[in-house]
Design a protein that fits this description.
Two copies of one chain form a homodimer.
Chain A (H helix, E strand, L loop, with lengths): L7 H16 L6 H8 L3 H7 L3 H24 L5 H10 L17 H5 L1 H27 L9 H22 L3 H14 L19
Helix pairs in contact in A: 1-2, 1-4, 4-7, 5-7, 5-9, 7-8, 8-9
The first copy, chain A, binds a DNA duplex through helix 3.
Amino acid sequence: MYSREVSTAERLIESTRELLWERGYVGTSPKAILERAGAGQGSMYHHFTGKPDLALAAIRRTADELRAAAEAVLDGPGTPYERIEAYLRRERDVLRGCPVGRLTMDPDVVASDELRAPVDATLDAIRERIAGIVEEGKEQGQFGPELDGEAIAATVLATVQGGYVLARASGSPAAFDAGVRGLLSLLHPQDHPTVRGARCTRCSTN
Amino acid sequence: MYSREVSTAERLIESTRELLWERGYVGTSPKAILERAGAGQGSMYHHFTGKPDLALAAIRRTADELRAAAEAVLDGPGTPYERIEAYLRRERDVLRGCPVGRLTMDPDVVASDELRAPVDATLDAIRERIAGIVEEGKEQGQFGPELDGEAIAATVLATVQGGYVLARASGSPAAFDAGVRGLLSLLHPQDHPTVRGARCTRCSTN
DNA sequence: GTCTATAACACGATAGAC
DNA sequence: GTCTATCGTGTTATAGAC
């Protein structure tokens, strides 16, 4: 039988991931991590050099996971618009916030190049992927030629990250959904038809 | 002579405002506040019941100030588009983040209805103001009738709040500016003209 | 009104037994 | 590899002098 128990190091990383998401780096103490993981002080300092080292392992895993999940949606089927819509509408635990984005509000994370690196890398990778999709959409005529892929990608990502802020402020996911809806209405080719059958250079649809 | 020194209570509130912006609620200790304000423990507990009470005074002031500054720009001169552009482009210390929005990532702030209330009220007021401006723009024909004021307002605010996240992740304001630029290109009536002089119902410009 | 002293506990890390 | 004990410091608050 391969009934495998999870290693202590593994439980420490997972507990840290949960707490970083809930309380951030500054708000997460080694004591709280150890309690959640069911381990003693010694275990943590055996496997990791300290709190920053353990947090780094946790942040890297969370960042890699989010990146893979986002790219899976963005590389999925559909037109460029549909793939961006799928990304914007993908299932999210909105009130919990973004496990990666929230770290940018942590002074100790931003102050450390090592802790910030995975956060930056993940957001940047998603941004690049979206920018490529926008350029693809321009070539196919689904998006107007005046759109800048890099800029639109930043807008898309910012709308998501800012949506979390609005939702958490109001205690309801409604504002997140509204922001996404607004952005999609601005992006949607079909939503701005021309009159008298003339072609609109922006949408390139009749 | 009216050479007035600032009261101790005043210095405590201002020091707290600075620290809340820099380090958030969880990352700000009474000791750090007292050091910055040049006061002793007794002063703080004389004027306030404790850390949450002092933080509430600081948050209320910061929220009210931001709200006034934002509404001043939004109620300024110009067309609806121009006023939204002015809001999006208004001077910001991007890498410091939003002094109000960052509080939504603080678990203790979100957990307290009292601390969260001023944050929610300010973001909501700005959102409502932008929504009204969008509706105004629709009536004037500057924005297409398919746009929903509430949704667009959420998108505008989210782009700003999320722009801070992207900027802090990368350590550069560039991503914030890119997000704003992308959103403006989607909103701008002039950026999507029709061919052959036909009228586009979306932009209502030739 | 402001100060210092003190309390009780948490933080982050180390030491050394098992 | 994991445990408990301990360390020095910081946190949040109270007490009481001035």
